[in-house]
C-alpha cells in the first residue's frame, strides 16, 4: 500500500491543494506516529478501522484527479458561464437585492465571521451574539410581536415550524390546519408533505364564508399573487375557536404595512433574504420566526438573550437551552438545532446600515415602481389579479402567458408563468425604469416613459403602517461606511473563530474552509440566480449539482443523492421520510418503530418523531458500542412494527464499532431499514462507505466533512444519500428544473423551500472534492485519525480517554473524562472549558455525549504546533487543578473558577486574588504578544433564563 499521507511538494513546485489543506507534514507525521506507537499511518488506520468494512481505493472513479487551485477556479468559471445572466422578476419569496459592499467584504467574505462556530461558549462569541440580538430586534419590531429567534432555515420550513407551534399551544380538539390558498406554492407543498407524517390535516381555504374549527390558520401577507388584505377578522374567528394564527410576512413590505402582530397573528414567519442576502439559487438565507408573549418557550431553534457576567456586566448568551434538540431528544418539539447565523448577521447589518428611514425609502421605491408598471398595463386594458399589492402584480393575458414570458426572456428577464392566462411580475430594489420599459415591451406595448407610481395606491388606508420601528440607537448610529466598517470589526474582534486558532469541537469537524473554495460564492453567475429560474438559464448550476451528487454517491456507497436538505437535521428528516414512504408503498403501514442507540445525536430522535415514528432506545455497553443483546431483544419485541434503526458510524463515542455489519444485518432480517448518521464521515471517507456497512440511507454534513463553513452556527447543508430502492422517495420539489437525477427520479415531498436547498454554497464542496481528489479525501481522513490519536495518547495519563476501540485507538475524536478530576479537585468541566479561553483556545464539545466530559476533534487541518499547544494547555490546566486540591489556592478563588479573565480584570482596581495577574492572563509566555482577550467574564446562564431579555438592551445598560 502506498503512503496514506502525501509527501510535501518539492521546493520550487506549486504546492498541491492537499498539502495546503492537511496540516501535518512528513516530519510531523513521523513524530506523531512515534508517540502513538505505530510504524506507519497505514498500520494505524488499518488497526482502527475494522478490516471487515475496509475498501481499497478504486481503480476508476467518477472523481477526477485532483485539480490545482487555479484549475478548479477555471472549471468553476466555465460552469458559472453556463448560467445565463438574467434579471429575475419571478418573486415567490425570492428577490434580487443589493448587498452593501461593506457587508459583503466584512461579513460574507470575512473568515472572522464565516469560520466561527455556534456560540455555545458565549464569553468568546459576544460579537456574533450582539449581531443576532440586532436580528431578533429587527424581526420583533417589524412583525409587531414580542420575541423572535435567531433565525430559521428558510421561509417554508419556518411556516411548518409555525404550524407545529400552533398545534402545541392550541386548545382546539382537532387536527385541522387551515392554509391560505394564496400561499407560496413551495410552502404549500412542504406543508402537505410534513403534515402527513405527523397526522395533521391540511385544509386550503380562501377564508371567505364560514371558517371551520382548526388548531391553527396560516395566512400569506402579502399573498403569492401580491394581494394585500386585512386578515384581522379571520384571526378573531380562529382565536374564538381556540386556534392560533401564523402569518408569513415580507419584512420589506412591513416597513410600509401594518404589522402581522397588530392584525392578530400569534406567530410571524418569513425570510430575510431581500435584506442584502444574495439569491444563490435558493440559499442559504435566514428565515425568521417571531411569537406573541407567552409563546417564548415554544420557539424552535436558537434564541439569544441578555444575561450578566460574574461582575454583573451585561452579556449575551443562548437562552432557554433546555429547548436544544440535542438535549430533549425524543421529547423534542422540533429537530432544528441550528440557525442561519451568517445570513442572519448579513440581514441584520443591512437593517443597521440603512436604518428605518433607509428601509422605508427602499420599500417606497419598490412599491412605486410596481404601481407604475401596473398603471401602464391597466392603460392597455389588461386586468390585474389584485389592485392591492406591494411589489408583485399578476397580469391576465388570456392565451398569451407563454409568449409574454418568452419575449421577456429574450430581453434578459425572467417572469413567472402562472398558467396559460396569467403572468407574474415582481419588482425589487434593483429594478430600474429601463427594466419596467423592457417588461412592457415583452407584453407587446410601447416602452414609453412610465408615469410616477404611488406606493400602496390600492391598499386600504387602515393597513398603512403608522407606528415606529427600529428605534434602538444601533439602527441609527452606523450610516457612514467608516462607522459600519468599524462596528463590524469591533464585533468580529470580540469573537474567537478558526482564523484565531484551533476549535477542537468533537462531533463538529471545524476544519479549514479554504479561500479558493469560498471564491465562487460571491460570483454573480452563482449568487444572483433565482431558484425557480428556467432550466435553460441554469445549466451551469445543474451540471455542478449533478457532478457533486455523483461524487458524493461514490464516496458513500449509495446510488442516489439529493442536495435539497439545507441542514443536517433536515437531511435526517428527509432520510426517515424516505423510509416512511418506502414502507407505505409496500403496504407496511404498521412499521413505525425507530430504534436509536442511547449514544446517538439528539436530533436523531427528534427527526424520527417528526417523521411519524415511535422512538425505542437501544442501550450501549461500557465500551460505548451498541449493546447487541439489547438490540436483538428490541428487534424481537418490535419485529412486526420495526421501521428503522438510526446509528452513527463511527459511533457518537468516537470509536469504530466492529459489530456494525452484524447490527445492520439483524435490522434487515427483521424487515427494517438502516439509517446511518453521516455526522462522523470525516473519520471514514476513503476507507469505508456507509452503503457497504448495510446503510440504506444517510445524511451528510457538507458543513463538516466537505468544508462548508459553519458561519457562527449556520449555514449548513445536509444532503441525503440512499440506495436505489429508497431513491424514489427522496425529496422532490414543485419548481425543480429537472425530474431526473444522477440516481434516478425523486418523487418524495420537499424538505426545503428551494429545489436544491442552499445551492449558493455548493461551489465550496464542489471545489473541495475537485481539489482533493479521491486520494486526497482519503489522506484527510488518515490525518484526522492520526491527529485524534496523537492527542488521546499524549493526554491519556492526565485525563482518562473514556472510549477506545481496537488497540486502544479512537476514531477522529476522543472523549476526555473530567469526572475523576472533579472528584479529586472540585474543578468542573465548565472550569476547564472557561480556563482554556485564557490559554487562547475554544473549548472542545462539553458534556456530549457524556456529562462531565470534553470531546476533542482536532481535524486534519491543524499542524503539529497547534496540536501540541492544545495538549500543553490541557496538561497545565490539570496541574492548576491539582494545585487547588493541594490547598495552594482556595477552591472558591483560583484561576479556574474565575476564568475567563478579561483585560479589565487585571488592570482595574486592586488585585486581591491568591494567584498573580500573570498566572491569570498569561499562563504560558507565548500568549504575551498574541493573546485573545475575552470581552466579558464568565456568564451567569441561569440569570438569563430567569430574566428573559431577547432584544437589544438600552445603551445605558453598558454604561
Automatic annotation (TrEMBL):
The keyword Oxidoreductase applies. This is Glycine dehydrogenase (decarboxylating). It catalyses: N(6)-[(R)-lipoyl]-L-lysyl-[glycine-cleavage complex H protein] + glycine + H(+) = N(6)-[(R)-S(8)-aminomethyldihydrolipoyl]-L-lysyl-[glycine-cleavage complex H protein] + CO2. Its cofactor is pyridoxal 5'-phosphate. It comes from the Bacteria. GO terms for molecular function: glycine dehydrogenase (decarboxylating) activity. Signal peptide: none annotated. The keyword DNA-binding does not apply. It comes from Microbacterium galbum.
